[in-house]
Design a protein that fits this description.
The protein has about 250 residues and is an alpha/beta fold. The chain is built from 6 helices and 13 strands. The structure holds manganese (II) ion. The site of manganese (II) ion (MN) has 6 residues, from helix 3.
Length: about 250
């Protein structure tokens, strides 16, 4: 049976990273693109519930949705695809999704949604700056996709993959990592419009990472591909045991 692969992203259906990913994955099976009609970077896991959504057929196995990455995965699985896909692949995002940024990422959230709906899913991001070369990342996405189709993924787990924006021979290797912390310094910028009114921009600033040896950011800094298994269960199980043992709460004052 030919595998059915859903390809999506958060940068929009016309993004070059999506095209190169979908084209590369065709080596493994039938790929269907269902992606936002516009850039939805930093859309996180938002779902459009207060207006109707339109699906546009742009060509064979290529659809756009006037919504978020999560809308795309939801509609793809619920309406567009003839059967449940064997894999959801989101990307290739032009820019990293490391540490705390994972929470804001539309790229990762599409893979979260795929996982919630019971399909093995992965998110692929290119860590670096323009000019982006998607070929190496697309080729590695095929290797990973083939492995997941063969072995599956642990329950309720997706892979967040960051690949250095370098030539293949310049990449040091592949590391399995944990999600690190990524802290922004001076992330809020103040500007004034022509009428002198004050505005704020979020998103500038210089990020710095925690120095954890086995983190996603550390692997990228060292020139490695970073693969972080993310779990849908956000519960801190150690904290849960501690709270149950040590906190005695009552509704009574
Ligand atoms: Mn993006």
């Amino acid at each position: 049976m030919t595998p059915l692969i859903l390809v999506t992203n958060d940068d929009g259906v016309r993004a070059p990273g999506l095209a190169s990913l979908a084209q590369a994955l065709q080596a493994l099976g039938q790929t269907v693109i269902v992606a936002p009609d516009q850039d939805n970077s930093a859309a996180s896991h938002s779902l459009t519930m207060k207006r109707p959504l339109r699906v546009k057929e742009l060509g064979r196995d290529r659809y756009s949705v006037d919504g978020t990455p999560t809308d795309c995965v939801t509609l793809a699985l619920g309406r567009v695809l003839a059967k449940k896909p064997d894999l959801v692949v989101s990307g290739i995002n032009p820019g990293p999704n490391l540490g705390d940024d994972v929470s804001y990422s539309g790229t990762v959230s599409a893979a979260v949604e795929g996982t919630m709906l019971g399909v093995p899913s992965l998110a692929i991001s290119l860590a670096g700056e323009e000019p982006f070369c998607f070929a190496t990342a697309a080729a590695f996405a095929v290797t990973l996709a083939r492995t997941i189709l063969d072995k599956g993924l642990p329950k309720d787990t997706l892979l967040n993959v960051n690949i250095p924006n370098r030539l293949r021979e310049e990449i040091a290797g592949v590391r399995f990592t944990r999600q690190g912390r990524r802290v922004y310094d001076g992330a809020i910028k103040e500007t004034f419009d022509p009428w002198g009114r004050r505005h704020y921009w979020i998103g500038g600033g210089t990020p710095f990472w925690d120095e954890g040896e086995d983190t996603d950011a550390q692997a990228i800094l060292a020139g490695y591909v970073s693969i972080t298994p993310l779990h849908l269960d956000l519960t801190n199980h150690a904290a849960l045991s501690m709270l149950r043992q040590e906190w005695r709460l009552s509704l009574l004052p």
